[in-house]
Specification:
There is one protein chain. The protein has 483 residues and is of the alpha+beta class. It contains 14 helices and 16 strands. The strands form 4 sheets. A 6-stranded mixed beta sheet has the order 10-16-15-13-11-12, with helices on both faces. A hairpin with a 7-residue loop joins strand 3 and strand 4.
């Protein structure tokens, strides 16, 4: 593509929130998001690859954000470009695994996800910055066909909710009989498509002077002269470069009967599932990191209700966040809880407080949210380079993309399970990512980098799994449950 045609194919400049992802990808610090869904049906397509390719073509043409590449990612003027065509043989990877057991298949699936997290997107000016990897077990269940579909994408073109949208569109497309023009695995992209405007053009964020000055003070105050009297525990420093990018992924699944009991307990305690996640993680950290005096978290929140972009039908980038701090009083109260009843009360108290404070944050949106500070961030490449080799700013991040609802008829494709993953450097110690299927399992992935101690993560994951099981069974929790 020459410079003239490239110029005419530009959709629009990359927005400020989107640049946070294009810069991190350019520096190798954050490479993709993935959403993995298990599809099943009670019939077997004549040719699975053709069925997948045809359905994928319908999904691509439905969502303009899947039809673009990215240019100038390493410069100050990155832009989205319209791809003239998409060769699906280069972005649809169909694999049949000869796994001897479902457990072996599951492990292979996680290894594929981990491998994909290591990959940078090549030739972004002329190729899609997303990929669909379909993994099917050679030994299929009798009278049923199923497969796992890994949708991986550059975070600059889509947010976490978009992964759920993609699978909803794919599910519908697999049952659609409408024809689509495919020539040698390739579809033409219409000239008429357009992208959603950048988030900051759709939502008019408002920043008070107090909020602005507090943010400036946080970043610019001389920490050697005015140190934090009780700095949060944030693990080892950010690595000095992305040379050893080493993502780790662990998946836990909560069965549907336990999910129903947990949700009922959350309603009874006047909190939410995300609030409970937050509380379980904080209580585990208080026990597992005995020298820490405080912790911080970051929770992803979607501003789609403000922009008007559909949470069920549109692929776009709509991202805000909410920060929580757990000071020495909170941490000490957890550690001082000597009986399971006291531990359980502390957990529910943290969960309720989180729900209340998050509701307050959502009510005042779009005022005084960190997303509104992006115009003042300066050079974003320098912003992220400045984090290398320095202390992390957060202990953990929680993202809950919600519940997938099957709305299909008899004999159509259903989604039985869904989970998502993200992993990067220059971020928190670990990510906690949640997704579920209505009437089905809740899936949680923990992701971290290789510089974080594996035994620490395994213990924390076991704590959360134990906590969720106790809540589901109506039992009280103990901090030390190893015995």
């Amino acid at each position: 593509m020459d410079s003239k045609s490239l110029s005419s194919a530009v959709f629009r400049p990359v927005g400020l929130m989107e640049q946070f992802s294009t810069v991190r990808h350019d520096l190798g610090l954050y490479r993709c998001v993935q959403n993995i869904a298990k599809y099943s049906t009670d019939h077997s397509p004549d040719d699975m690859l053709i069925a997948l390719e045809t359905a994928l073509a319908r999904v691509i043409l439905r969502h303009p954000h899947l039809c673009c590449g990215i240019i100038n990612e390493d410069k100050d003027d990155p832009a989205f470009v319209r791809l003239e065509s998409i060769d699906m043989s280069k972005c649809l990877d169909y694999r049949i695994l000869d796994s001897s057991t479902p457990e072996e298949h599951e492990q292979s699936l996680i290894e594929i996800v981990q491998h994909q997290h290591r990959q940078l997107w090549p030739d972004m000016h002329c190729r899609p910055v997303w990929k669909l990897i379909v993994v099917q077990r050679k030994a299929q269940p009798s009278k049923r066909t199923d497969f796992d579909a890994i949708f991986a994408w550059h975070h600059g073109i889509a947010d976490g909710v978009s992964g759920m949208v993609f699978h909803r569109s794919m599910q519908e497309a697999l049952s659609d009989s409408a024809t689509v023009a495919i020539v040698d695995h390739t579809i033409k992209i219409p000239d008429s498509i357009s992208l959603f405007p950048p988030q900051e053009d759709m939502i008019k964020f408002k920043i008070s002077w107090w909020f602005f000055l507090a943010a400036v003070w946080h970043f610019l105050r001389p920490k050697w002269l005015l140190p934090d009297p009780s700095p949060p525990w944030t693990g080892p420093h950010v690595p000095p470069s992305a040379r050893n990018f080493d993502p780790r992924v662990q998946l836990i699944s909560v069965p549907s009967k336990d999910v129903a009991s947990i949700l009922s307990a959350c309603r009874e305690q006047k909190t939410t599932l995300t609030g409970l996640f937050e509380a379980l993680v904080v209580s585990s950290l208080a026990f597992r990191v005995p020298n820490a005096t405080s912790f911080t978290s970051n929770t992803s929140i979607s501003p789609r209700s403000l922009s008007g972009i559909s949470s069920t039908g549109d692929i776009a980038v709509q991202v805000c966040s909410y920060s929580s701090a757990y000071n020495s009083d909170v941490v000490s109260a957890i550690r001082d809880a000597s009986h399971p009843a006291q531990v359980t009360d502390q957990i529910w108290g943290i969960a309720r407080d989180f729900r209340t404070s998050l509701a307050t944050e959502m009510a005042r949106m779009p005022k005084d949210n960190a997303a509104g500070l992006l115009p003042y961030a300066g050079n974003i490449h320098n912003f992220f380079r400045s984090k290398l080799g320095k202390p992390r700013e957060e202990t953990f991040q929680i993202s809950n993309v919600g519940t997938f609802k099957n709305q299909v008829g008899e004999g159509q494709w259903r989604i039985e399970r869904i989970f998502f993953t993200q992993c990067g450097m220059a971020g928190p110690v670990f990510w906690f990512n949640a997704a579920s299927v209505a009437g089905g399992p809740l899936s949680i992935t923990f992701t971290w980098q290789g510089d974080i101690d594996n035994e620490f993560m395994e213990n924390l994951i076991a704590d959360v799994q134990y906590g969720l099981k106790c809540i589901a069974d109506g039992r009280e929790l103990s901090l030390d449950h190893s015995g």
